[in-house]
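Let's do one together. I've listed all components of the complex below, 642 residues spread over two lines.
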Amino acid sequence: MGALTIANVRKTFGQVQILKGIDIDIEAGEFLILVGPSGCGKSTLLNIIAGLELPTEGSVSVGERDITYAAPKDRDIAMVFQSYALYPNMNVAQNIAFGLEMRKVPKEKRDEAVQRVAKMLQITQLLDRKPGQLSGGQRQRVAMGRALARDPKLFLFDEPLSNLDAKLRVEMRAEIKLLHQRTKTTTVYVTHDQVEAMTLGDRIAVMNGGVVEQFGTPDDIYARPATKFVAEFIGSPAMNMLPAVRAGAGVTANGVELPTTAAQREALAGNKAAKLTYGMRPEAAQLSSDGLAGTLRFTEPTGPETYATVETPVGLLTLRVPGYMTAKVGDAVHVKWNAEATHLFDGDTGKRIG
Amino acid sequence: MNRPPSSLTWHRIVLWTALGLFAAWFLTPLYVMVVTSLKDMDQIRNGNLLSLPGSLNFASWSKAWSQACTGTDCGGLKPYFMNSVMMVIPAVAISTTLGIVNGYVLSKWRFRGSEVMFAMLLFGVFMPMQVVLLPMSQILGYFGIASSIVGLVVMHVLAGIPSTTLFFRNYYIGLPDELIKAAMLDGAGFWRILWRVVLPLSTPILVVTLIWQFTNIWNDFLYGIVFSGADSKPVTAGLNNLANTTSSVKEYNVDMAAALIAALPTLFVYVVAGKYFVRGLTAGAVKG
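Okay, and this is what the predicted structure of the assembly comes out as:
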């Protein structure tokens, strides 16, 4: 039994099924990411862990203790909200100490905790300010401080970075990671941002339509996506997806034979899928002198690399090309990629074949 | 960026003139009341309605306060005024407190049927209160509190709950739900959250509600005459009696002074808290 166990959690609102049986189990000190598009049920699941909503079915345990129906305050859980939810009428120190005060911690201990947390987050000089006088990043820190002060069993984050500008978001992301490395508190972090998911998580649960599509380490999720949805959701630009069919032991798209590995051909032989989807990550392909011929349609330079979109007989392919591209739009180019870097999915169910 | 206009332009002059005229139009009755209350009867009979009093003479004020006849008693407005004070303080306090709790529940602790309940409460805001006079007098009589200040307080509390609930509920809708959730996770319960988190953010709407309730209850005449006994009449009923008591001469100065005495508390409240009133009415969501 791990630090947090979610077993067969279902949630229905009237006729609508929000969560359709979620099973997740993580070890103490792990950083779990719940990632998925809006409406996938990730925030509902977080609220169920926090006790702000109750599941229709299933159970949630922290350690050995079943907390499915425990009141939020009895769960030893702290949460950082998207809007930070700092109490506007209290100053920073009071905000941080409020949870301790409600738990009847004596004044000296509270002050001690406030000082400790403020030092850790470098907000000591802000302790007398009201939340209204703080910038977005500072509020974010105070919200984390409020959660840290109680030294909870479980940390919950509900899209904490989505209200920050791009630069601050990257900074705070690094801080959250550092903070977790120092405190080693088991954490559940909800986001819709796949970069946050990949950079922060020890384990990632990719959710879609109320189910966990894949639960694994960032490397698993990226290198061996279990479904077409996961493959497309994680990675930017998104994985190239080509509708394909079997041709002998291999695979073709629009009559063009696509590179496959021996393992993929073997997996294909043991599978009955009629329609296939052939996936290839943009960074797996290069422009080359031979390979699949095509025309460069447009380019998106980002500085360190350029996203090139090439029209080929099998469809539009996006490539990540290092550095600045010399080829011009309209030029005839060739695209080449390794069979090792490709993924085969069942075209109907979206399940991974190999 | 925001520079004051360098000179008076013609449309400014038009605007100020129009505003001045409107203000004069609405303030004239008050002016007439004040000057008349300070004149003696000879001056009133011989002078012009708008003319200033010859000297400051507060005799009619003290007469209206403690000697004027209201019916057969000649104790002035004072006992009625005191009745109103005894009525308005508990009535405002209780109806506002209940409005706070109701609004808090209906916005942040919704339960099955709470929306229906709120919709039904809204009926109370728009219902003409004459409808409840007869049944209410029966009920007050049944509980033995008809014709008493307690009965009036109960009546005003009941009549006030719909509006106070509406005010607070609509204000609390604008408070982020996450604040409540954060407080729940911090370990605060229903009352602690209300007291420590929600109430400190309620000042604007609290002022609005207090003014609203105070004005309505203080100025009420209908319940004041229907549900009060001989010694529990509020100041509005007293004023009516005073002005309608006929003696040999109609003492306009005393009537005016009495009317001003009856209106002073509400005037005072507006002057003191008026800016909060406008601010509270226009305040939207509270930014965290």
